[in-house]
Amino acid sequence: MVYDARFATGVMDVYLPAGGGAARPGVMLIHGGAWRGGDRGHFEAAARRLADSGYVAATIDYRLVPAVFPAEVQDCLCALAFLRAHAADYGLDPARVAVMGYSAGSHLASLVGVAAERDELAPDCAAGRTGPPAAVIAGSGAYDLRTRRHQWVEDFMGGTPEELPELYALASPITHVRPGLPPVLLIQGEDDWIAAPEQAAMMRGALREAGVFTRLLTLDGGGHLLNAGADNGQWFGEMVTESPEAWAVVIDFLDRTVGAEAVR
Fold first, then answer.
1. How confident is the model at residue 220 (pLDDT cuts 50, 70, 90)?
2. CA dist 181 to 57, 110, 136, 259, Å?
3. Residues 160, 154: contact at Cβ < 8 Å?
4. CB–CB of 102/170 below 8 Å?
5. What φ, ψ does residue 237 adopt, rounded to 5°?
6. What is the CATH number of domain 3-263?
7. Is the overall model pTM greater than 0.85, yes or no?
8. String of b and e for 106-141 (b: at least 16 CB within 10 Å)?
9. Domain boundaries along the sequence of the chain
10. Which listed site, 2, 17, 31, 196, has its alpha carbon 20 to 30 Å from 65?
11. Beta pairing, strands 56-60 & 3-8
12. What is the helix (H) or strand (E) element at residue 214, kind and residue range?
């Protein structure tokens, strides 16, 4: 067993490391699915792996399209507030919680990281408001929705960029970049035709210009849901963050920002 218990709250499953303990770091995981599909079960394997590495891991659900922005990010902020409010139940240090997302979940995780305190995104739930996470891991995401012309984006936003220019700006993580943000790890496959690689490069550039600690891992030949395996000619249908190279970087980043090395 890689965890002692899993707590289901209706919108969240929490996985605990074996052995118990208190004031442990945590990671909240936000699934992808073009804002219109998926559920917290998509990140179960990752949550178990994180729990096995000593992290409290929470996988969450959120409202999906036809619900439109900002409902999805409000739900993510509600979940983060709930997790922190119940930190004592899980042996969690509420000040050391990172958020990690993939695809649409990466966009939401990034927005939580850069805009958690914006009044326009204030949660509409009992858990109330919360501050930004301690770190962000974003895999294959969209960081400037103003330049992503796709029906998925328009359905999520409830209209086109021409119809809703201010809302598109609010929904784009890159527009909120400023000094003092939590550290960010961006992970991107170079051959991803769904999440344009140049979006990750632009986000890294903006974060670095603002003086935010930022890392970008670009995986050669990596796609969105089809990636090269360890053996030549082998491919697997998985998120690019599930590759061995990505996991090594993810755990190192977490250890440095919210884990044991962060509290030395």
1. confident
2. 22, 11, 10, 18
3. yes
4. no
5. -90, 95
6. 3.40.50.1820
7. yes
8. bbbbbbbbbbbeeeebebeeebeebebbbbbbbbbb
9. 3-263
10. 196
11. unpaired
12. strand 214-219
